[in-house]
Hints:
Blueprint: E1 2-7, E2 12-18, H1 19-23, H2 29-32, H3 36-43, E3 57-63, E4 66-69, H4 73-81, E5 89-97, H5 99-115, H6 119-130, H7 137-140, H8 145-153, H9 173-179, H10 181-189, H11 199-211, H12 216-224, E6 229-230, E7 233-234, H13 236-248, H14 255-275, H15 294-303
Parallel strand pairs: 3-5
Antiparallel strand pairs: 1-2, 2-5, 3-4, 6-7
Amino acid sequence: MNLLHTDTAAGFTLISLSFQEWLAIEEPILFSFADARTENTVLTLKHASSLSAYSMLVVVVKVGDTLYKLTGKQRKEDWLSGNTPPPDYLIAQVIDLSEQDFSALNTEVQNRRMKRVAPNETVKLIYAGLGLEFTSDRLKDGFILEALNIALRGKPRSLQDKRFVWEKEEINAQKAIHLFSEELRLIDNLKPKSEIFVSGVLGGALLMLGINKDVKDFLSRLNDGRGETRNGLEDPVSGLLRAIDLHRISDPAIPAHTAADIYRKTIQAIVLWKEGADSAKYWRKKLLSGADPRPYIRELKSLKQVDECKDL
Length: 312
């Protein structure tokens, strides 16, 4: 790299660097968000040799001692594809940014990017950002936002009262997924069946795993359909499996209400399981009625130390 010019008043420096040096510069999310239309316009300059120097101009930002690409994404792809021969060198405008400004810009770009994609694609982006890799069909495609709402608020977003201080804000999906990252990994390891781990069951599993990891055996038996009956009575696994079957054929016009209902029944089944087979309530003939989730949600948030987070 060679210094060409410094403009202290304008706050930038010009440097020349080889194409390979420029390729080695880190690429933040800001770079991925480059305006494709502008870049494609620049690419047409390959047909105007008198303006070819313009296509060699790029912008990078300097944060501390580290350089990051800001422009040139489309040109890079074109140069590397072989469609257009890459230049021997580039001229880069270097703009100094503070760590705080750099972080804020990346966060803003991430938020804008998420607004442009489907909710499950947003979840997959969050997975990637948190280094989470799931293999089960139930989790890997990102359809967990309803389950997160149910786990943390006791009901889907559509049923929450936005006048209430604890339900006014949308759940911060990134914070929620980070909060449940360990529980999500445990569930993924079970290879959860989508027809079993419907949103209400997944929400209940996240909640109760977050409180006590010892419920893994219950969830494994549930997933494998290994409930037991004794003298015509069902154990909590069988009871919840029956409730899930009824949930599956319930009124499709009110899915949010049925999701909240199966969530409460999942909590009740796990509580009965924890009480043990000698408990008078363990073996039952009646359908599960469901448990009030609020005490368990409070316990979870206390254990996770997020009691005051209004976006969870």
